[in-house]
User: Fold this.
Amino acid sequence: MTWKLYLLECNNGAYYAGITNDLDARFAAHLAGKGARYTRANPPIKILASKPYPDRSSASVAEAQLKKLPRNKKLNFFESDQ
Assistant:
C-alpha cells in the first residue's frame, strides 16, 4: 500500500501537512470537517502537492522533515528526492 505526504492550503492562507493512504478520501474528510482539528477550524481550499512513499513509516519521517521547514521551502520539498 502506498502512502502519500500531502500539503494543503487552508482558507486562512496557512499550509497544512499530513499523510494518508487515500488522498481523495482524506481531502474529502478535511472538507467535511472530519479531518484534523486544525482543518476543522481552517478548512482547506486545495491540495498544493503530494508525494508517494512506500510505507507509513517513511511517509511519517518525511512529514516531520516537511513540518520543520520554513513556509517558503515547503513546496520545494515535493520536488526533491527526500
Notes: The chain is about 40% helix and 30% strand. The mean pLDDT is 95.
